[in-house]
Amino acid sequence: MKAALFIILAVLAGVVLPIQAAINTKLSKSVGDPLYGTFLSFIVGMAGLFLYLIVGRVDFAQIQNTQSEHWSIWTGGLLGAFYVASLIVLTPRLGVAITLGLTVAGQMAFSLVMDHYGWLGVPVQEINWWRILGISLIVGGVWLIQAN
């Protein structure tokens, strides 16, 4: 049952990405700048997360636990901002399906490399022909979407 909930959550997370890309593109156009639109999107997201943390009574003192970690753990927000800004720039030029198809292909290809070498502490899973075939099918799907 728990696995089914995680699968549903993963699918829902995938569903919101094209919606987010379209909404953030509109926001960006209305303010006249993709990075300003990204900034505003993150401000709203931050406000929503902060409200969740307050309602959920999260112990804010736990931030002290990060002192022993490498500084790079703080770069995830920058990577997220780059991703969202890229979607805002690419969506009106390529369309939602091609933009997200290409980003998924990039995610999968780099994920294989990360898994293969165990980068950033992920479990090692060697690259094999089945995994390469899976990425090839994704790239082929993107090609079919843009071919019509």
What is the structure about, briefly put?
The chain has 5 helices and no strands. The chain has 148 residues and is mainly alpha-helical.
Q: Number of DSSP strands?
A: 0
CA distance, first residue to last residue: 40 Å
Q: Which structural class best describes the helix and strand composition? A: mainly alpha
Average pLDDT over all residues: 92
Rg calc: 18 Å
Encode the helix/strand succession as letters.
HHHHH
Percent in helix: over 70%
- Low-confidence parts, pLDDT < 50 over ≥5 residues? none
**What multimeric state do the chains show?**
single chain
Strand content: under 5%
Shape: globular
Number of helices: 5
Largest sheet: none
What does this structure look like?
With 148 residues, the protein is mainly α. 76% of the residues lie in helices and 0% in strands. The protein is built from 5 helices and no strands. The chain has helices spanning 2-31, 34-55, 76-94, 96-117, 129-147. Helix 4 packs antiparallel against helix 5 (129-147). The longest helix has 30 residues, at 2-31. The chain is globular and about 50 Å long. The chain starts with a helix and ends with a helix. The model has no long low-confidence stretch (mean pLDDT 92).
